[in-house]
Structures
1.
Amino acid sequence: MKLYTKTGDTGKTSIIGGRVDKDNLRVETYGTIDELNSFIGKAMSELDRELFKDILSDLETIQHELFDGGGDLANVMKERHYKLTEAPIEAMEARIDVLTEEAPPLERFILPGGAPAAATLHIARTVARRAERQMVTLMKAVEDVPAIVQKYLNRLSDYLFAAARVVNARLKVADVEYVRSAKVFK
């Protein structure tokens, strides 16, 4: 099997149920989800397998769920079954609660950074936010898209923030507070 097909040489790409321009908003949105998935993979490569076993397990699950969500967005068939459901969001909320309890108390906004893996998780968080914004625009432009993907991305950015803070805490790297911030979290 050849990796290249040459079918995209004219600026079109295949989605489930048709072909569209490569700059189609649907393609842009699931392309950003793919970028997000790549940053999560990079963060995973930076995490110690023993110290971060729980977070690595979470992130691997998230990578599969992102593929599900991207596939759901790429599907324009009349009859379709979406893979992403409410269950992963509920599981992620439970993990966010656990991670939030482990991290130091949060009073001010923090600057992205710290340990390399935490910094990469912060990058992934911002890409998740961009994907979510694109998803909202897509939902306004196209009525027939799975709204659960937007909800998932919203929760995922919270998870990535919590995970980045725990990575820093376990490595004993202090989060850097935004010094001009008032105490906004109580």
2.
Amino acid sequence: MNDHRISELLELLEPYWKKQGNLNLTELLAQIGEASGHQGGLETLTDDVVFYHLKMKASGEREMIPGIAKDCEDDFKTALLKARGIIKD
């Protein structure tokens, strides 16, 4: 894991952990895994699941999934023209 991802993880984890101050890190990760629907032990919980869950927890319920929002077009015609290569980004 590179420095950027570690910094991002700590930034996302801090407010979540402060709300659950009585838990240790292992318990916190197990709770995140359970809340995200992860089936299996803690050793199979990937960092991507933790990142995704923490990002979605911090966003509003009606907000679009991070990573998809950048590719979303409000206008169907524009989306179709971009997909055909007629309009460049």
3.
Amino acid sequence: MQEFDHIQSLWQAHTVEVKISSDEMLKQAKKEVSAIRSKSILNIAGMAISFVAVASLWLFFDFSSWTTHAGITLFLLAIAISVFMLYRSHRLLADNDFTTHPNEFLVSLKLYQISRFNLYNKMYWVYAIGLSLGIVLYFFEILAYFDSWLQYLIIFLTFGWMIFCSTLVRRAVMKKEKERIALLIEKFERLREQFSSH
């Protein structure tokens, strides 16, 4: 523990002055915010396309079981809630401009960070449970058309994929996004300090 404290004190004593202009930092920060906004729009568009694709099942297929209709409805409900949450998060960054309202933008960026944390932790499980129940209900009728070995394979692959996405993929995306937003908040706080000192 003493070695760690010693290394930490050396590290803190050894500060390197980074010579980066506020204009360059602002340009980098704006580029990162633009990338986050673009990714957010793509996420919303992808979920909206998924909603339309799942809803179109009712147009092209004549389902006889109520469980299939209930499954599709749950599926659509889970997707609609996710689109709404993604849109709310997106509005936090889309409504503010750092150059005109730096303090408001910083507050919005911190709210966006909390919103994304809630989306990946709380809302993700609502989404995953909604999808899982929807799939189970949908499979009651659909799997009857397949041989038993194919039924097991479809169930295994479907829920295996959902577990993979719920664990490894979700954690990796959460970690990357958390670091990216925290770094962006730090940049905007430094920018705010630079602007206020001038």
4.
Amino acid sequence: MTAVRPDNRLADAPMQALRCRRCDGPVLVRKSSWEQTSIQWSEQAMDDCPNLRTDRYETCPDLRATIQQATLDGAVKVVDE
């Protein structure tokens, strides 16, 4: 059995709380770079998001726009700047 290595990236730059500007669903976000975004969906956000009702594996365009604007405004930090 191999040991699971801890993900130390979150120690230096933890995920940040953010709410979708359309449905107000709470998620956790981490921008490793301008091109890479990690999202942890809460159960509430998954239930509230009108865009996920048809496909839970798609990325919500409204949340994507919320993250982009929050990043441009400086509310979400880009780790690799």
